Amino acid sequence: MSEWSSRAVFVDQCRSVVQGYPRFNATIYDGDTAVLDLILTAKKDLIGSIAVTVFCMGIVCVFFIYSRTGVLIVTFTISSICFTLVGSLSWWGADMDPVTIVDVLIATGFSVDYTAHIAYKYYKLNGDPAERIKQSLREMCSPMLQHFLEQA
């Protein structure tokens, strides 16, 4: 079996069969058990991590952005990015292995960072809303672009 997800399901099925015969005191050994167990729980863990991230960022934004609308926009943006990212991975047929989970969590962190900084800058500025958007994007795009290029 060359697919890690297939191996993980196979080892789990073998464990289920062995559990049906406790009198033999048999165990299933695979040197990659730690990774295979991670693969089996990856989807559930990823969804939980994203939900906690969105919830915590909503709470943090309440303290720094003194506008319900701003908090809702940031929370909606983060949720939208997360659902789009996970949906795209599913659509592409990507396996949810530990490396993919780390990549998704890093991408979620970037989206949280970018949207929170732009929204915070917007609500700190005074004046016309269109001018505030221009100014916050003007001030935040350069650091965000530098950060992106460092990570690439």
Note down, in words, how this protein is organized.
By secondary structure, this protein is mostly helical. The chain has one domain. It is 81% helix and 0% strand. It has helices spanning 4-19, 33-64, 68-92, 98-124, 129-151. Helix 1 (4-19) packs across helix 2 (33-64) and helix 3 (68-92) packs antiparallel against helix 4. The longest helix has 32 residues, at 33-64. It is elongated, with a radius of gyration of 22 Å.
Unreliable residue stretches = none
Radius of gyration: 22 Å
Global geometry: elongated
β-strand percent reads under 5%
Q: Termini distance?
A: 33 Å
- How helix-rich are the residues, as a percent range? over 70%
Any idea how many domains?
1
- Please give the count of helices: 5
InterPro entries: Patched_domain-protein (IPR051697), SecD_SecF_C (IPR048634)
GO cellular component, one term: plasma membrane
Pfam families: SecD_SecF_C
Protein name: SSD domain-containing protein
